[in-house]
Amino acid sequence: xxxxxxxxxxxxxxxxxxxxxxxxxxxxxxxxxxxxxxxxxxxxxxxxxxxxxxxxxxxxxxxxxxxxxxxxxxxxxxxxxxxxxxxxxxxxxxxxxxxxxxxxxxxxxxxxxxxxxxxxxxxxxxxxxxxxxxxxxxxxxxxxxxxxxxxxxxxxxxxxxxxxxxxxxxxxxxxxxxxxxxxxxxxxxxxxxxxxxxxxxxxxxxxxxxxxxxxxxxxxxxxxxxxxxxxxxxxxxxxxxxxxxxxxxxxxxxxxxxxxxxxxxxxxxxxxxxxxxxxxxxxxxxxxxxxxxxxxxxxxxxxxxxxxxxxxxxxxxxxxxxxxxxxxxxxxxxxxxxxxxxxxxxxxxxxxxxxxxxxxxxxxxxxxxxxxxxxxxxxx
Length: 380
Description:
By secondary structure, the chain is of the alpha/beta class. It has helices spanning 30-36, 52-63, 74-84, 100-112, 126-129, 141-152, 169-179, 197-204, 220-227, 238-242, 246-261, 292-298, 303-314, 341-350, 354-370, and strands at residues 8-10, 13-15, 19-21, 42-49, 90-96, 116-121, 158-163, 183-187, 210-214, 233-236. The chain has two domains: 8-261, TIM Barrel, CATH 3.20.20; 270-378, no CATH class. Helices cover 40% and strands 13% of the residues. Strand 3 (19-21), helix 1 and strand 4 (42-49) form a beta-alpha-beta unit. Helix 3 (74-84) packs parallel to helix 4 (100-112) and helix 4 runs parallel beside helix 6. Pfam families: Dus. This is Putative methanogenesis marker domain 9.
């Protein structure tokens, strides 16, 4: 598959596909990444423990049987590990520290090495949370926000990994975005039930940050469940150890979908109650009671303003055509996966492929969100 198939960017980084290898303490190093994630768009190494407190906590975790990266020279290890990853994937580095200063040093090192820094606000092991690290940061938003802001002053591209359903997730996400983070890496965990797909949709509707979703990604169907709720990328963790070829499989399947459909993470329709706000690109003209009204209200649009913004985008594009469709224009037509002989007849007449149609719909979705009277990150 072509490395140019996807247009996925964060800062100066361009990912060749939306599949990532997640960090796993004591497991995800360059050797593991090169063996199992050569085809990935992103590999996140670590987590690495940067100060004496986290190093001591890691040693205690290892003593009771957990895997962890142990080193009293973590910065040298990080630098060497970034260089050791095979060319192809973008590299991220997941780090923990009980103090800010080592995080700043790590940010500068990672920035200069051409990689992404990931702040661990995710680890729930008592040894880490007892010293205010990992998941403990979720309950201290002033501290987390301050750390993010100061780390971003280095110019590094910053991801923050969090665990869902611990605190008020929307409040948390807004604080992380306001502090300046570029990427939200969401472990969408819900106890005993796999990934929390409803929460992924709610978070997608509350932020414009690049969204990586994690938890129970074991095949293309579980990945698609996350993509259709708004994930820009999915990360794979334990499944890689159970099935070493899973990342290559996921890359292959999502690449085929991108070639065929043109929008790999196209949302579900909002009228089904499962689609995020990007799904407004597929909505009919709002002339009758339906979920479109509640969704456009979240963006500050009246029904007329929503109609105007869609028609404004369509003007001069292929979406302007379609007199024979339900509302006289392709701009009001649904997702290509939903059968419609009226839409498909117009596409055939225009010579517009399914993927070209869907790429226009993606541009339309971005246009609707970018011109909203209430920004997405103002949503509840």
